[in-house]
Specification:
mainly alpha, Growth Hormone, Chain: A, 79% helix
Length: 516
């Protein structure tokens, strides 16, 4: 067979592109499930009598378990193959029905946790299948760009869709949207999706599975609790994070001694691969931290409803979508490292726009900032994810995908925890000398509640001080995010492979390391 014939044989056909359409369904749903429940929480609290702590577990339990199990499920998917995706899809549909008709908070918390485990089977499986279906580098790049677009668009569309459903139906409708979508996956999947699995599977190490959970779950829990409570009651979250780090060290040591590790950490010895993972973590920190601050600004300072705030945040998801979809074309003109670094430089500009938002008239600048910020991350999410997946043989794509997804989840949790705590500390320091109740000096919501019991002139003065303090916190958060994006841009732009490209783990890695 000639080289031209080999290239033609490697090209994906209509079946593979139809399979991609099927694969974006679980991608959309997992991303939407992370965000769509936020607007439904007040109704759930009323109907089921959920306390504040129970509401926290209802909203966060899903993300906790996705983050905890994605490493295990990525490696298991390489061993089991396509069946894991179909089993996960069936479980996701069944649990969605159970969640929609939960009769008490405990039942819903348990269901959300099980949904997280089912969701963890879907994301790495879809990326592994894309790698096996699209062997041509250019086609794989476009397919991953479409996948990334659906992932981040789903996250942005979740609250908007939930708000629309809640206007016409009960809170359980937010769960039921997954059922017909998963039915399509279960019917069409066996027809259009190929089977794949690692030829030499090896044994799944249960000790490594337990250690991965013990490392990831406490860290994510601690970060989220710090984001909610700040410095108050920080002992338990900090202790949980320390325990997670200790278990993480044990996990790493064990992986380096196993012949078939749960997570192949030797991939981290290649600098471009590691640079992209660091970039995904930092981008997650910046986007989650600024997203949290912007959402609070829209509702607290500008007094928009949750649904309107979700609509105003939609440009952030659209910005990522445009950035990811145009990334493959951009990579055709410049080397991927340049495209990623250039995109992150654009994100720096978006963050600086957030740093310039001033008072209650800053909505246009705010929307421009989050749109430009998100647009610049597109090449990182599309081309960077393609690098991570392309750096390993196709039969190990699930494990590589789990590393990419873990970086995303860890970055998001760090953003909520660290930048959320920084924003809270800035607000508290700027309100320290304001004559107001303690609750008003702690949070913007506390200031709003305190103002309702004050005379009109004092209420206006308090809200003016609180809005100014929170706007200052938003500005500094934007500045910190700009620094993070700038660091990653320099890191990616200057990074080269530790060896010759042809000796790297895969063609995508060689492409990142190649000259323009």
């Amino acid at each position: 067979m000639t080289r031209t014939e080999q290239d033609t044989a490697a090209l994906a056909g209509p079946r593979e592109w139809l399979g991609l359409v099927v694969l974006v369904i679980p991608t959309l749903l997992v991303a939407m499930d992370l965000t769509s429940l936020f607007l439904a929480l007040p109704r759930i609290s009323t109907d089921l009598g959920a306390s504040g702590a129970e509401q926290l577990w209802i909203s966060d339990g899903y993300g906790f378990l996705v983050a905890g199990f994605v490493i295990t499920m990525g490696t298991l998917g390489d061993r089991v193959g396509r069946r894991l995706l179909l089993i996960g899809g069936a479980a996701f549909a069944a649990l969605s029905i159970v969640g929609a008709y939960s009769v008490n908070p405990e039942m819903l918390i348990l269901t959300r946790a099980l949904l997280g485990i089912a969701g963890a089977t879907l994301m790495p499986s879809t990326l592994a299948l894309i790698t096996n279906m699209f062997r041509d580098g250019a086609q794989r790049g476009r397919a991953i760009a479409i996948w990334a677009t659906c992932q981040f668009t789903g996250g942005a569309a979740g609250p908007v869709l939930a708000g629309t459903l809640l206007q016409h139906f009960w809170w359980g409708s937010v769960f039921l949207i997954a059922v017909p979508a998963m039915a399509v996956l279960l019917v069409a999947g066996p027809i259009v999706l190929p089977e794949f699995r690692t030829p030499s599977r090896g044994r799944l190490d249960p000790v490594s599975v337990a250690l991965s959970l013990a490392a990831v779950l406490p860290v994510v829990y601690g970060l989220k609790q710090l984001a909610v409570d700040g410095s108050r009651g920080a002992l338990v979250p900090v202790a949980a994070m320390v325990a997670g780090v200790v278990f993480g060290v044990v996990f790493v040591r064990r992986q380096l001694t196993l012949e078939t590790p749960l997570l192949d950490l030797r991939l981290l010895s290649n600098r471009p691969f590691t640079a992209v993972l660091i970039g995904l973590v930092f981008a997650g920190v910046a986007m989650a931290g600024t997203g949290l601050a912007v959402t609070q600004y829209l509702q607290g300072v500008l007094d928009h409803s949750p649904f309107m705030s979700a609509l105003l945040m939609a440009p952030m998801g659209l910005g990522v979508a445009v950035g990811t979809m145009t990334a493959p074309a951009l990579a055709g003109r410049v080397r991927p490292a340049t495209a990623i670094a250039g995109g992150l430089a654009v994100s720096v500009v978006g963050c600086l726009l957030l740093a310039l938002v001033d008072g209650t008239g800053g909505l246009p600048l705010l929307i421009a900032g989050i749109t430009v910020l998100a647009l610049g991350t597109g090449p990182l999410f599309a081309l960077g994810t393609g690098l991570v997946i392309g750096s390993v043989p196709p039969e190990r794509a699930g494990a590589a995908a789990s590393m990419s997804e873990t970086s995303n989840y860890l970055g998001g949790s760090l953003g909520l925890g660290v930048l959320g705590a920084v924003g809270a500390a800035i607000y508290h320091s700027r309100m320290a000398d304001v004559d107001a109740p303690a609750a008003a000096r702690q949070t913007l919501a506390g200031a709003d509640a305190a103002a309702r019991g004050l005379p009109a002139d004092r209420a206006t003065e308090l809200l003016h001080s609180a809005n100014g303090a929170f706007t200052g916190a938003l500005n500094i958060t934007g500045g910190i995010a700009a620094v993070l994006f700038g660091i990653v841009a320099v890191l990616v732009a200057t990074m080269r492979s530790t060896g010759r490209p042809e000796q790297a783990a895969g063609p995508a890695e060689a492409e990142l390391a190649s000259a323009p």
